[in-house]
Amino acid sequence: MQIGNLKINSKVILAPMAEITDFAFRKIAKDYGAGLTYTQMVSAEGIAKGDFNTLRLLTFSKNETPVGVQLLGNDANILGAAVRELAKLNVSIIDLNCGCPVEKVVKNKMGSYLLTQPKLLGELVKSMVANSNGIPISVKIRLGFRDEINVLETAKIIEDNGASAILIHARTRSDKYNVDPALEWIAKVKEISGIKIIGNGSIFNVNDAVDMIEKTNCDGLLIARGALGNPFIFKQFNLMEKGISYQPEESEILKVVLQHIELLEQEQGFTKNFDRAKKNIIWYYKNYNGIWCLIEQLFSASTFTEIKKIVINHAEKLKSGFYPEENLEIVNKNFKNKVLFWLAKEEKGKVCYN
Ligand SMILES: Cc1cc2nc3c(=O)[nH]c(=O)nc-3n(C[C@H](O)[C@H](O)[C@H](O)COP(=O)(O)O)c2cc1C
């Protein structure tokens, strides 16, 4: 697929996720066939000022390509300056966040608030394009800010101001995750647009991906929660297009989990990485028996060596059929709504079969 001058070799893309799509996560998604991955949202102002903590959030290696960076901002000059800095770093695509629903962000007139400001939005996109030195600009949007949907108008403004792609999360800002994405709106945008339209919302498996394409005719797919603990989804989609079905073996999952932990461990000095490793481990094993036991053990672990041992031990128990069958539906439901991890506290009383 071609987005502006960027050619990517798969239409499945890893969505930006705050505190999640770090270097380790992106590397594994890419190794498993994601055509493009995005960093989490970062402050355009922080980049423009060269703020260390902001720049650190988008750590990537020189050979990481393609890589997309997502910016949060609402000032055309600042966004332009941030884009100029990113162009020096040779990033592959730069995205403007117009979807973030978080109160603090909206209060600062950023994220999904920009959906209420079409004129300003046009100016922001125009400035990003003008400063990008040819690097394509994408804009991630929702269907609207409140219940009224203005995605067609928003899409037109974005295209008219020179962006190369629109990533559409098919929900409004007021919709929670338990509302199904309104795919018909992606279809309508696709019909009127001449730039790439990337569909987003509740793609958890290959069937959801096919459904999104069939219902919307979109050019590409953006996957967020469906990729948590499941980089395999990218490979599954790519192989499915060739008529091949694929399911990772348990040994392959273990290998990836250990690789993921090691990548986080290697990134020295990032204290958050230890908790992040735990979070990712839980996501990898969320659909397997013994999840409660794993969560409990991880909570009390305090070193990377310890969590690796726990994982190896867990994988052995799974292989030997040690854990009794569990109803994993509740885990799945909570996961989709809340992205799991804090479940252990809510689900007190679950038995850990040590
Ligand atoms: C934990 C988490 C963090 C997110 N962070 C971002 C972000 O930094 N920028 C952004 O545009 N969207 C962010 N999103 C929204 C996702 O990119 C995506 O649009 C949304 O989750 C719908 O896709 P899904 O149904 O595949 O999860 C985040 C979502 C989650 C679950």
Structural account:
The protein is an alpha/beta fold and 354 residues long. The protein folds into 2 domains: 2-241, Aldolase class I (TIM Barrel, Alpha-Beta Barrel), CATH 3.20.20.70; 250-346, no CATH class. Helices cover 46% and strands 14% of the residues. It contains 16 helices and 10 strands. Helix 4 links the parallel strand 5 and strand 6 (93-98). Helix 1 (23-31) packs antiparallel against helix 11 and helix 11 runs antiparallel to helix 14 (304-319). The protein is globular, with a radius of gyration of 20 Å. The termini are far apart. Bound molecules: flavin mononucleotide. The site of flavin mononucleotide (FMN) has 22 residues, from strand 4. Residues 15-18, 20, 40-41, 70, 97, 99-100, 140, 169, 200-203, 223-226, 339 line the site of flavin mononucleotide.
Chart the SSEs and their pairings.
Elements: E1 2-3, E2 6-7, E3 12-14, H1 23-31, E4 36-43, H2 44-48, H3 52-57, E5 68-72, H4 76-88, E6 93-98, H5 103-107, H6 118-130, E7 137-144, H7 151-160, E8 165-172, H8 183-192, E9 196-200, H9 206-216, E10 220-223, H10 232-241, H11 250-266, H12 272-284, H13 291-300, H14 304-319, H15 329-338, H16 343-346
Parallel strand pairs: 3-4, 3-10, 4-5, 5-6, 6-7, 7-8, 8-9, 9-10
Antiparallel strand pairs: 1-2
Uncertain regions spanning at least 5 consecutive residues? 342-346
Tally the structural domains.
2
What is the terminal-to-terminal distance? 48 Å
Mean pLDDT, nearest integer?
A: 93
Summarize this entry quickly.
By secondary structure, the protein is α/β, with parallel strands linked by helices. The chain has helices at 23-31, 44-48, 52-57, 76-88, 103-107, 118-130, 151-160, 183-192, 206-216, 232-241, 250-266, 272-284, 291-300, 304-319, 329-338, 343-346; strands at 2-3, 6-7, 12-14, 36-43, 68-72, 93-98, 137-144, 165-172, 196-200, 220-223.
